Amino acid sequence: MAERPRKRRRYGAAVVDVDVLVLGPLRVAGVPAPTARQQRVVFAALAASAPRPVPAVRLIDGLWGDAAPADRTKALQVVVARLRKAMAPSGVDVVLDDGGYTLTVAPERIDAAAFRCACEGEAGLPEGDLEARRALLESALSLCDAEPFGELADEPLLADTARELRMLWDDAVGRLHDVRLAQGQGARLVPELATWAERRPLDEAAWCRLALGLHQAGRVTEAMRTLHRHRQTVRETAGLEATAAVAELEARLLAGEPMTDVTEPVGNLRVPGSSFLGRSADLRAVTGRVRPGRIVTIVGTGGVGKTTLALHAAAAVRARYCDGLWFCELADIESPDGVVAAVASTLGVRRQRGLTLLESIVKGFGSSSALVVLDNCEHVLDAAGAVASGLATSCPRMAILATSRAPMSVSGEVVHPLGPLDVPASGAAGHGPAVELFIDRARAAGASVGSDPPTTADVVDICRRLDGLPLAIELAAARARTMGLPEIRIRLDERFRILGRPDGDPGDRHRTLWDALDWSYRLLEPPEQELFSTLSVFLGGFTAPSAAAVAGRPVVEVEESIWALADRSMLALAAGGPPTRYQLLETLRQYGHEQLLHAGRLEAVREAHLGHFVELVSESRAGLRTSAETTLVPLLTAELPNLRAAHQYAIERSRASEAALLVAALHEYAEWRQFFELGSWAEVTLVLPGVPLTEVPALRAIAGWGRCIGADFATAIEHAEAGLAAEPAGGESGWLHDVLAHCAYFSGDADLGLLHGEAEVARARADGDAYRLAYVLADRGTHASLSGHPEIAAAHTAEALRLAESTGCPSVLSMAQMAQGFLHRYRDEPVQAIEWLHRAAELADTVDSRWTSGICRGELAVLLALHGDPAEALTLGLEQFGRFRRAGDDGRTRGVVRMVIPALHRLLGQDRWPDLVTLHAGTRGRPMIEEPHNDRAVDEVVARIAGELGTAVVADALARGSAMADRAVFDLAQAAMGAACPPGGSTTVGGG
Predict the structure, then answer these.
(1) What is the pLDDT of residues 544-558, one digit of tens each?
(2) CA-CA to 850 of 20 to 30 Å: which in 151, 169, 508, 583?
């Protein structure tokens, strides 16, 4: 490992650099490890948890359980004291702070912490960055040489961590296999894949990887036999059918599709990682019904597994929908009007001038091959049905999959009723899916559940009392580690009897689920009950610090409660992080919300939620203009659902100050990330009474920015001028002339745009704001290059680069680098222009700065078509075309079409050249910003085509394109790009 500074301070003690190894037998480099078993167990637990402290109560429970000495704290102190003495020669100490014990060892010198860090780093890389992903995975796996903790792995204090590390190691091996397969190394990998799969007969992913490896080795028949063998094993061993994903892979293998590409999945839908039991028939039925132009609604009671089935069904048909899988959660939508807004936000579409929001979605996705999942529609049935019906009717290649407790009752809807899992009759042979689910979840929770007749009888009885509802079964199974099965059954009987539910009467299944939730809730300790209900105000997940802030409790204490809730399956890990995020399933969130309401705490907790997120964005505001942007952007992206909920609450309660602060603080985040929704937040906030005058200019700038991007220049100018009129009251007044400048640029008046840009430069200089000055100088420099003012461009871009570097902010630095690229483009220095634009795009990607990245890649598409690889140029153009068309951004979509015409000319045969002339005519004079360099390149292509095919052919194509509507132009462009796409390359162009 790399050398580190020898001494650091943490928790008041010196941190030492000593290698501590727990991924195998416990070892401490250079000195003997502790020899006494209790000391070894504590040392291993502290090392595996680093840098997070381990609470004393957890150490006590792990060492002694119910047999703890009378003075438990004293007994632990004795063990720790002896451990400190044993480790003194190494310089390693154990310190107590924040309610837990910690080793004074640099975390990167502990193999478990380094292993986790490498795995998390790989997970954060783009899917297509194969070399970097492979290096990190190989680095992580090189740290694991044996069973975690060696002979200590079964110790109660270490068993859960050992299991988690084994699962992480398994996942890392699988991901490394995926990377190597994506690099086309299947032939060399087959022996390793075969050994791995043989050891995991029911691991579908392992057998699919083996089949892919055999296919890459040219052994297609063996690949098909491998999948068939896996099917038989699953059927004979588990009594289940293989998932639809296996059938999809078989179809791809038979079709001879290339199996080496790894591309970033389009859309936002991700499949949960937990096993999916007992629903193979339902999965086959739903996947068979999902098809373009159709609405399929999975209907069933709460907790029956509708969302899980929808996610797995969507994943199983992913290959059919090249424009992505999109998951839209409607549970938190409180009004019918919010449904279409939620769908638009999910799809990245903003309202187009002269169109409704639904019409704007149809315009962006009208020809798209996409699958949209609408989850939890029951409380907005009419609105959800109207949106689903509108999309299915107007987007013939789009499929709609919905979940609800009742059908939407719209034309063309296909309803799939989802019942509970089958439970065997008492005394019947065999397990059945409900019993299999209970056993699987109980074992995952660390319980030892056998398959002997008495145990099976208890499990069957529990599942019958829970009516086979998966969520209720999972909650009960999570208790199996601390309760015997007979005790669980007896307690359920008592609970249902108290609630007046006669034994043997299945009753209302929703009541059954609520009874099971209530039973699980009442078994929690009071602090855990209070935290659980508090967590119901979060949307899209939460971190432990956020939960602690809203609950008003110390983070260490809240973490203990979170872990307890996770152990009992009452919350789960959420996507995203680090830091680690958690979430409540929607049914559990509804139950927690009800507890808050009954306790009279709902309003207070929502106030705390609003206050926390106002504080969060306020603290982030300045950091977004510095190098801290790198860490703040993923944090804010993960919290967007909570920020949206906080803003909605502020609007509902007319809390103008908090609403205004939320919006204003997110300006930098939103503009670079193209979070168009913030413009509408600003407009809604501006109509509240009592908006602080100091925030009005910023709100007007954000509202104007949103209208300008939507090409509603008149309204954008009104906002900007109103903001300028409000400036005497003070406050953040930047960006108003920037809005006016862009309205002028996009309207074709470059000189007026430059004048407004100069006004913004003067204001930024007066304010002494390096970030804003760097931005406006780079922006004005770019437009000066485009409009033929090289002297202005050269001076502004050089100063912008110096200022941007001083801020350390990746977004503004990448914009300054982009301005350099445009300057070199104007000077006819394509090599330098390509270098600067590549550099800018790659830096922008590190902070998801889509605005800069999109512009750079569009320019690169032209430059590479003329001076480099046209296939690479087309790939860049495809990405931008799909993104802008899905968003309904016609101006930029037209611009991308023009940018790829030179590449298409080099890649297509002469029979398709008239289409390029048609595309030229259909986009000429209509992009948002005139691009003279690109226009010259396209004019040269048209001239060459005229020389080869004749002026009559060109004249006819020009006439045809001039009469085309945008949609027809875009469809033609898509067809041309699809025909030109190189073999093995992506053909996904997104917009249709």
Answers:
(1) 999 999 999 999 889
(2) 583
Task: Report the C-alpha gap between 234 and 248 in whole angstroms.
Answer: 17
Same domain, 375 and 499: no
pLDDT tens digits for range 902-939: 888 888 888 889 999 999 888 886 544 556 667 788 88
- What CA–CA distance (Å, rounded) separates 268 from 479? 33
Residues 339 and 403 in one domain: yes
Strand 542-543, strand 572-573: pairing: unpaired
Tokens read off for 128: 């297509």
E strands present in 393-526: 399-404, 413-417
pLDDT tens profile 112-152: 888 888 887 777 666 667 778 888 888 888 877 667 888 88
> Which DSSP symbol is given to 428?
-
Which CATH number belongs to the domain containing residue 535 in this structure? 1.10.10.10
Task: Assess contact for 439 and 459: CB atoms under 8 A.
Answer: yes
Rounded to whole angstroms, the Cα distance separating 955 from 78 reads 93
Q: Quick one: 473 and 361 in the same domain?
A: no
In sequence order, the 6+-apart residues with CB closer than 8 A to the CB of 254 are 224
Q: What is the pLDDT of residue 813?
A: 96
- What is the domain count for the chain? 5
The alpha carbon torsion through 333, 339, 341, 346 (nearest 10 deg) reads 90
Q: Which residues, other chains included, contact 440 with Cβ-Cβ below 8 Å and sequence gap of 6+? A: 275, 277, 477
The residue out of 550, 566, 600 marking a domain boundary is 600
For range 83-92, the mean pLDDT? 82
60 with 76: CB under 8 angstroms?
yes
Beta carbons of 348 and 991 less than 8 angstroms apart: no
- Candidates 851, 865, 815, 812; CA nearest to 836 is 815
Rounded-to-integer distance, Cα 105 and Cα 102, Å: 9
Q: What is the torsional sign of CA 822, 823, 827, 832?
A: negative
Which residues, at least 6 apart from 154, have a Cβ–Cβ distance to it below 8 Å?
Answer: 162
Q: Confidence class of residue 783 from pLDDT cuts 50, 70 and 90? A: confident
Contact yes or no for 245/211 (Cβ under 8 A) = no
Cβ–Cβ < 8 Å for 552, 564 = no
Residue 504 structural domain? 433-522
Q: Which residue has the tokens 């100091």?
A: 694
Q: Please determine, for residue 265, whether its predicted confidence score (pLDDT) is greater than 60.
A: no
The values of phi and psi at residue 15, to 5°, are: -90, 130
Residue 14 three-state SS:
strand
Inside any domain, residue 236: no
Q: What integer best gives the mean pLDDT of the chain?
A: 81
Q: Of 13-17, 50-54, 291-295, which one has max mean pLDDT?
A: 291-295
**Domain termination site, one of 600, 634, 666:** 600
Judge residue 500's burial from the number of C-beta atoms within 10 Å of its C-beta, 0-12 exposed, 13-18 middle, 19 or more buried: exposed
Region of 362 on the Ramachandran plot (φ > 0 left; ψ -120 to 50 alpha; else beta):
alpha
Same domain, 518 and 534: no
SS3 276: coil
